[in-house]
Design a protein that fits this description.
This protein has helices spanning 2-15, 20-24, 59-74, 88-97, 118-130, 142-149, and strands spanning 29-33, 81-84, 102-104, 136-140, 158-164, 167-174. It has one domain: Phosphoglycerate mutase-like (Rossmann fold, 3-Layer(aba) Sandwich), CATH 3.40.50.1240. A 6-stranded mixed sheet has the order 3-2-4-1-5-6, sandwiched between helices. It is an alpha/beta fold and 178 residues long. Helix 3 (59-74) runs parallel beside helix 4. InterPro entries: His_Pase_superF_clade-1 (IPR013078), His_PPase_superfam (IPR029033). This is Histidine phosphatase superfamily (Branch 1). Residues 1-17 form the signal peptide. Keywords: Signal.
C-alpha cells in the first residue's frame, strides 16, 4: 500500500517531466531556479554588490545553464524578457542561458534569510508578470519559486506556468542535469 501511495504522490511530477510542449504554448511563463551553486544560503558577509561574498555557480552550474539555454534555443524558443534576481548566481545563469535580454527584478531576490518579505515579494513578482507583455522567463531562488508555485525545484529546474485568475498554475517542468 505504501508503494501505491508513493506512486500516486509522484505521478503528477512524473507526468510533467521535461514537458517542452508546455513551454512552447502561448502564454507559457518559464520560472527557473538558478543553476547549480553548491551550498545552502549565502555566507554571513553577503553583499549584493560583491559576488565574492555570495554563493556562486561552479563550473558544473555554468555548464548546466549553457546546456539548458542550448536545449531551449534548439526548440526555437526565445523570450522577450528574462527577469533575474540581483544575486550573482541568478544573473549569471540568466546570461549563460542566452535566450533573451536579461533584466534585474528585485522581487525575485532571495528571502531565505528574511521570510518577512515573502508575501510582498511574491505579490510584486505576480504584478511584474501581469504587467509585462511577451514571452517571459524568470530566474530566481528555491524559496521564491516555492512561494509562487507551492512546489520545490532542483538547481536549474524550470517550472512552466500559466497565469490564471491572478495565480500561477504549473503546467509542466523541465530539468536538464548538470
Amino acid at each position: 500500500m505504501k508503494s501505491l501511495s508513493l506512486i500516486l504522490f509522484l505521478l503528477p511530477c512524473l507526468a510533467l517531466a521535461n514537458d517542452w510542449s508546455a513551454l512552447q504554448e502561448d502564454g507559457a511563463i518559464a520560472v527557473m531556479r538558478h543553476a547549480l551553486a553548491p551550498g545552502t544560503g549565502d555566507p554571513s558577509e553577503f553583499r549584493l554588490e560583491d559576488c565574492s561574498t555570495q554563493r556562486n555557480l561552479d563550473e558544473r552550474g555554468r555548464e548546466q545553464a549553457r546546456k539548458i539555454g542550448e536545449a531551449i534555443r534548439e526548440r526555437g524558443i526565445a523570450f522577450d524578457t528574462v527577469f533575474s534576481s540581483q544575486w550573482c548566481r541568478t544573473r549569471e545563469t540568466a546570461e549563460l542561458l542566452d535566450v533573451g535580454p536579461v533584466v534585474e527584478a528585485p522581487s525575485l531576490n532571495s528571502f531565505f534569510r528574511d521570510y518577512s518579505t515573502r508575501d510582498s515579494q511574491t505579490r510584486a513578482t505576480l504584478d511584474l508578470i501581469e504587467g509585462t507583455e511577451g514571452k517571459l522567463m524568470l530566474v530566481s531562488h528555491q524559496v521564491n519559486i516555492s512561494a509562487l508555485a507551492g512546489q520545490a525545484t532542483r538547481s536549474g529546474e524550470i517550472l512552466i506556468f500559466r497565469l490564471r485568475d491572478g495565480a500561477l498554475a504549473v503546467t509542466g517542468r523541465i530539468l536538464v542535469e548538470p
